[in-house]
Amino acid sequence: MIERSDHPTDAYPTRQGGSTRLTPRLDPVLHGKAGPEEPGPLSPTQLAAYDRDGFLLLPGLLSTSEVRELTTALSKLRAEASGSAEQGIIRERGGTDVRSVFAVHHRADALGAIARHPTLLGAARQILADAVYLHQSRVNFKPGLVGGAFSWHSDFETWHAEDGMPRMRAMSASILLDDNRPWNGPLMLVPGSHRTFVSCPTPTPTEHYRESLVDQQVGTPSREALGTLFEQAGERIELAVGAAGTVVLFDCNTMHASPANLSPRPRNNVFLVYNAMSNRLSEPFGAASRRPEFLATREPRPIE
Amino acid sequence: MIERSDHPTDAYPTRQGGSTRLTPRLDPVLHGKAGPEEPGPLSPTQLAAYDRDGFLLLPGLLSTSEVRELTTALSKLRAEASGSAEQGIIRERGGTDVRSVFAVHHRADALGAIARHPTLLGAARQILADAVYLHQSRVNFKPGLVGGAFSWHSDFETWHAEDGMPRMRAMSASILLDDNRPWNGPLMLVPGSHRTFVSCPTPTPTEHYRESLVDQQVGTPSREALGTLFEQAGERIELAVGAAGTVVLFDCNTMHASPANLSPRPRNNVFLVYNAMSNRLSEPFGAASRRPEFLATREPRPIE
Asked: What is the rounded distance in angstroms from the CA atom of residue A175 to the CA atom of residue B66?
């Protein structure tokens, strides 16, 4: 951990050896003073569900033509990525299939534009109660049969440890560009898990992201810690399944995973991470050096 | 392949090099002359569904006390298995967690008795229209978080190639001893796939079962072959989810898989494979030597 006089206090210590600790979240989930009454595209009921569960499904938010436009942009991205050795392009272990492409809002106009979708941008502002910027964007291609799983993790745990995100004031939007079904690797979430911070004992290895983006091991909870969250959720895991065009909003600390894609078809989802301008990155709280810009924006520009 | 004068004709060539071939099934699914009118515990509607899809769910077939008795027997089995180096006990890759235990009907009275459950035994006789014996029995423990996936495969392809099962006249019963949910590694099946035999080109490696029972590679369909089956099914995969006590009956040639168990809890399912007495094993059709008796019974005794 880097110690600097201008470094904010570490509200969520992790990756510092010792044992796993489960501590209550110190930040609100809905940051607006008025809580569920905060103006914006989400109804009080939707805000209350997000507050309670740590996620919210918006079935069929995007139209067929919006989905088609994004899918076309993705096909182009994948074609460009297939022969590229660029850092922001991650491949499946032991294969050539593209697993993820990062910073997609810079790579295609359609992907930059979707971050300004009134409902998505409006929901981010409504929940985070601040101007927002894109901390990260990516596409997970999950190619058929070879698209591997993503281990259980809290995004915030990684962003705090490896990127220096100070507090829990960020929201992800997962945009389903194919029908997501139980058998093609949908997002799975533990309801209510966003209320607990699970520290991870293992110190961050050097250039950990090179490994973690293919198969994350450090920054994942122990079986016992996950057992506690699962129990608190009433032994329940929720699947974010739905038709193409559905969007899943989820809190930065919601424990989530996704299984391998067992279907023979690819399954493309786009992720956009909105962070509050007031929550911009400092130095990493649990790693020796910063991750590259394609993973963690350090020159935030508020989305207008 | 072993050539012997008393060896039956190979109706389903596989593991013989060349390319994958998809050929129509040569055997009936319902072997009784009367088809859906065959007497037994399954209704004509249930038989028709099994015939069409290649599987049938029997929700809540076993009572809570029957489930409890089997679960107790399994706990004992797992405890005995934990320190054992015996061949019929398979562990997860790179770990000590028990993945599967074979020949369980010989290891515990309760597991032997369940094979004689009137509905299970009756359904097997009704579908196979013959006296039946247990070709194989096993428990898949699928421990929480570390319980790995089972690749797509047709059981018959393996039993034909490696055990010498001549024709498609066998039925499996999967007994759910825990609630099976989309996130804890349930059985997944491609409806209608039992009507097509998918040959696998790669010749069987020596003592292949030592590898295949941990992570099957040979005897799994190509992405293209699976794509064809998936398309024929209307781009559909079915999950055999249900409460503890549910039983899934499925044809020996139904293409199936199961994903990793992403929950923190174990998920125990028992499998019983009923084979028609008239379909007893010959020499392997696509392997140099027989597999051990714990995987493939060669001295069949009809279940009474």
From this structure: 45
In whole angstroms, give the CA distance from residue B91 to residue B81: 10
Burial class from Cβ neighbours inside 10 Å (0-12, 13-18, 19+) for residue A249 reads buried
Q: How far is A33 from chain B (nearest CA, A)?
A: 36
For residue B207, give how far its alpha carbon lies from the nearest alpha carbon of chain A (Å).
25
- Edge-to-edge strand list for the sheet holding B150-153: B150-153, B256-258, B188-189, B238-239
CB contact under 8 A, A144 and B237: no
A107 or B245, greater pLDDT: B245
Q: Which of B153, B262, B265, B267 to mutate to test the interface with A (most CBs of A within 10 A)?
A: B262
Instruction: Give the Cα separation of A51 and A86 in Å (integer).
Output: 38
Chains A and B form CB pairs within 8 A to the count of 62
State the amino acid at position B94 in one-letter form: G
B183 touches chain A (CB under 8 A): yes
- For B259, phi and psi rounded to 5 degrees? -80, 170
pLDDT at B1: 44
Interface of A with B in 225-254 (CB under 8 A): 226-227, 230, 235, 237, 239
For residue B50, the SS3 value is helix
Contact A123, A221 (CB under 8 A): no
- Phi, psi angles (nearest 5°) of residue A144: -55, 135
Instruction: Show me where the domains of chain B are located.
Output: 21-279
Reported as a pLDDT band with limits 50, 70 and 90, residue A35 is low
Instruction: Assign a CATH topology to domain B21-279.
Output: Jelly Rolls (2.60.120)
pTM of this structure: 0.90
Q: What ipTM goes with this model? A: 0.84
Q: Which of A101-105, A286-290, B206-210 has the lowest mean pLDDT?
A: B206-210
Hey, is the C-beta of B263 within 8 angstroms of any chain A C-beta?
yes
Judged by CB atoms closer than 8 Å, whether chains meet at B259 and A260 is answered as yes
Mean pLDDT throughout A25-32?
96
Subunit contact A230:B181, Cβ cutoff 8 A: no
